[in-house]
Amino acid sequence: MARPRFAPDNFTLMLLSTVALASFLPASGAVSQWLEVATTLMVSLLFFLHGAKLSREAIFAGIGHWRLHLTIFAATFVLFPLLGWALRPVLEPLVTPEMYMGVLFLCTLPATVQSAIAFTAMARGNMPAAVCSASASTLMGIVITPILVSMLLHKSAEGGDALQAIGKIALQLLLPFVLGHLLRPVIGGFISRHAKRVKFVDQGSILLVVYTAFSAAVISGLWQQTPLPALLGLLLLSSILLALVLVITSWTARRLGFSKEDEITLVFCGSKKSLVSGVPMAKVLFESSAVGAIVLPLMVFHQLQLMVCAVLAQRYARRPMHPEAIEDGAVPASAAPAAKAETAPAK
């Protein structure tokens, strides 16, 4: 029996189960300390493997479309933060102040890679440009996100300055990514042949980070400080934010005269926020007891963007196919992978 269109994917169900486990059986004491070390190692391994999977050919194929890339980066790192800041007086009453900090953090994050590319493929968009923009967004976020967090939240990594935060993130995320990419000629084939095991590292690392983060938050009283109306308000807030970005990016694409394939790439790359990059960054940028509340808006937005963009991708895919779309790198909807979950920050 086919899964309903709006049903959560398997990874989202695992995320919810992990939050439930941390709520009833939070890690503490020595176990928590060991999990912190394991989490750091798993996340570094995650970025190492995805550095090894990143194809230079795909990046070079899409790098020349600079107007589209600049527009996507502006949506990711300018439009989102501006909306989060400008709408704060209207939207913050829907949630708790701590949860709105998580919304602002969400607005500073880079775009997804796997789901953005998969949705672009389903909708027959500009695939090389999507690969280039999404991959570059992940790398740029390592520098830009800590700076935006410092500006929007007046806070940086556990009391340090933005440069310290950038250095810590670069050490844990960027360095393994670069090392993996440099070793791609040696290990790239092995990783491609064992894609299922790499996916286990993807999902396992995020689940481990979520468990440790929510364990610390639960011990600090997260659920006592988060009423049900605030959770419902968070869903409404996320819907408003996503709707605004989708409308603005599609309108901008048409105003700038982009082709339909480029519009699709802008919509799907410019409206995404990365759970895979965001959770490890939150662990670095915020105190352990605050990470649970910080990543909660990201988890809600993550599932919402998947469901909404799945519907949009199907609508785009129903348009007549033109030969130019194939030449530009679009993929027919029948050949596109199912985009139900974001499990990797780079391809």
UniProtKB/TrEMBL annotation:
Cell membrane as UniProt keyword: no
Keyword presence, Cell membrane = no
The root-end lineage is: Bacteria, Pseudomonadati, Pseudomonadota, Betaproteobacteria, Burkholderiales
GO cellular component terms, A-Z: plasma membrane
Q: What is this protein called?
A: Bile acid:sodium symporter
What keywords were assigned to this record? Membrane, Transmembrane, Transmembrane helix
Q: Which residues cross the membrane?
A: 39-56, 68-87, 99-122, 129-153, 165-183, 204-224, 230-252
Organism listed in the record: Delftia acidovorans (strain DSM 14801 / SPH-1)
Instruction: Look up the domain of life of the source.
Output: Bacteria
Q: Which Gene3D superfamilies match?
A: 1.20.1530.20
